[in-house]
């Protein structure tokens, strides 16, 4: 029955889906709907002269690969773009009023008026050969891996129509790091914000672009994103440092399997054949305890091309020796792994880091950067390789791009013993695009392999926060709610599930044992906002209603309780619907009062933080987004095994905003009806709405 509805959906899709263009490297931008396309066509002759309809900074018209995309602010009469290669901090300016949208704008409350970007995505199975060994039946978007590049500009509205053509499983799509202010039902977490999209069904997501920077989208249906259901997001906006060009499409780093993670706990051999990919390209023969024999040709490494051309600050140059500098390139780094933390570097080239997740920061230089699962960094690289005795210049001007696996920092891939010195060579930076030689360059000698986030003092947000006292004061002795990561299955009478083995323990709430989270696919929280019953006996944190004209803060400490067999993982902790401030991130330190030293004045902030395996983190977020939000470890197997909790925020506001009769709730109920019908038709035994893992 499920396959029948998928077939119907495929036939309908022939006539209802807009066309989209395929691109090199299996990554493609999606076309706008026809209603938008005719507007684009009618204005081609004037677009070049229109200061409010422009290519994002650094997008070259001749580059292709989605670089023909344009920002559209034609509704903002009197405004014009103000970004230049020497000053990317300015975005839009109204010269008559002096108003600006720039790097200092409070983007949580103010943003430009853009346009609507409408995209279509299909979820389906496909055979993907990324590294010389085929993954048969991968679950991907639009038959490509990575999925299509979704672009929007600061202030736009994004609408994405998702059609599930996978005959075997449901799906839901999470837009990682997106604020979703007052749009909890668009967060894309089945069992919390919606029921899964059943095979043959379609659901439309719509969200506002309040932030800018780099991110990704992925399935949140159990471990489905580990089967390939991921793609990049770029939200164009200002930058804290200048650059000339965007070097390429976003750079997605991932660990890769060659067999489905379904059913959860699948032990088939292909699942354990591993590799590392950079933008969907890798070499399977470098991984595994025993060398894996490739079954098809190993692809050439992913390649970036820089030019050594100088940029002249006097144009045309009037001086005999004009003032010039190297060209500066913007790179967008994203870790989409299921278990690996990466350290990114380019031989002989320094990185100027300008944003952490969606938060612009003051630039700082480093030879490498650690990127945890779900984390993103925008970096700027000069086309000016550094020459020194330990790192001489490559004679052919080719340099390795390296993605090292941080040791003992998650459930990383196994590296073949013969490839320990070369496995991280996943890409090539060339200054001569016709060159075919492998680089002879050497890695930086000062790269740290420590399983640690970037230094807190380096991650200084441009837009500051001053963190106030929390509303979740648990006692007179402590302002901080304490949650501990604990491994092991729960004891009776706490409900369990087959894969349950990780959870958060509410230390402040007096809960002593494990309590892994499991959601109910058929009964999402979004349809129960006026009812406390579903929240009982589950791992929930419910915070009071917001106070008028005040900012309510929540402080949360997370530590690790080790099991007897030893938990060796650092945990990348992700919070939906919010950025959070990192008040303290302590390694090799016990969580006791005398070791608490909080930074409340413009601390680092982001939406994913790496919790050290022997220490603690203390985070703070604003309780200003009504609805239910997920906090979880982004190691896919840990989330699958229950390492998550839900935060119910401003419940009365949320219930009033989305009553059962509201259009959003009615749409969600219809989606649930489709899901329940598919379950009933697809399972001959007693159907169950529960997954065999946590469901997230």
UniProtKB/TrEMBL annotation:
**Plastocyanin-like domain location:** 123-238, 318-433, 551-651
UniProt-listed SUPFAM superfamilies: Cupredoxins
Q: Does the keyword Signal apply?
A: yes
- Signal sequence residues: 1-19
InterPro entries for this protein: Cu-oxidase-like_N, Cu-oxidase_2nd, Cu-oxidase_C, Cu-oxidase_fam, Cu_oxidase_CS, Cu_oxidase_Cu_BS, Cupredoxin
**Would I find Oxidoreductase among this entry's keywords?**
yes
Gene3D superfamilies xref list: Cupredoxins - blue copper proteins
Q: What's in the keyword line of the UniProt record?
A: Copper, Metal-binding, Oxidoreductase, Signal
Family membership, please give it. Answer: Belongs to the multicopper oxidase family.
Q: What is this protein called?
A: Laccase
